[in-house]
Amino acid sequence: MDWFRDHVWETWLIAGAALAVVEMLTLDLIFGMLAVGAGVGLVAAVLGAPVVLQFVLALASAVGLLAFMRPSLLRRLHGGPDLITGPAKLIGAPVHVLTAMGPGRTGRVKLDGEEWTAAPYDELDELDAGERAEVVEIRGATAYIRRA
Question: Does this UniProt record's set of keywords contain Lipid metabolism (predicted)?
Fold first, then answer.
């Protein structure tokens, strides 16, 4: 215990470095905030503050960072646009009907520069060649469409 009392700032430095390493492994922004709190305790120790005050300052800064800074950092990190890939990105896309289709008959459409098999989304609807439509759903390799 005497060693800690004689080397308080070194203890804060070791604790801060250990917390920073754990943060690098977890990437949760929790241990990083605690490491910053340890840095505040280190500065207080170097300035000669009593040990109790060092702990209070370190704890207050870590809790403050966790409560106020971490949520906004997480929003910024995870707040980018959603990446939509595969068939889901085609929902709502315009299509050009190439062959007529109707109840029980599939047809062909030009979708995103490619020819697709298509069927009317409403089973009783009929679409003629040359009409404009939009994709409502993709099931397997068939696009279900309705008039635009």
Answer: no
Quote the pLDDT of residue 45: 95
In the block, residue with structure tokens 């809790």: 63
Question: Within 10 Å of residue 51's Cβ, how many Cβ atoms?
Answer: 14
The pLDDT of residue 109 is 96
Q: What does the DSSP assignment read for 88-126?
A: GGGTT-EEEE-S-BBTTB-EEEEETTEEEEEEESSTT--
| Residue that wins the pLDDT comparison between 87 and 33 | 33
CATH number at residue 142: 2.40.50.140
Task: Quickly list H helices, 27-50.
Answer: 31-46
Note the pTM of the prediction, 2 decimals.
Answer: 0.59
- Rounded Cα–Cα distance for residues 132 and 108 (Å): 12
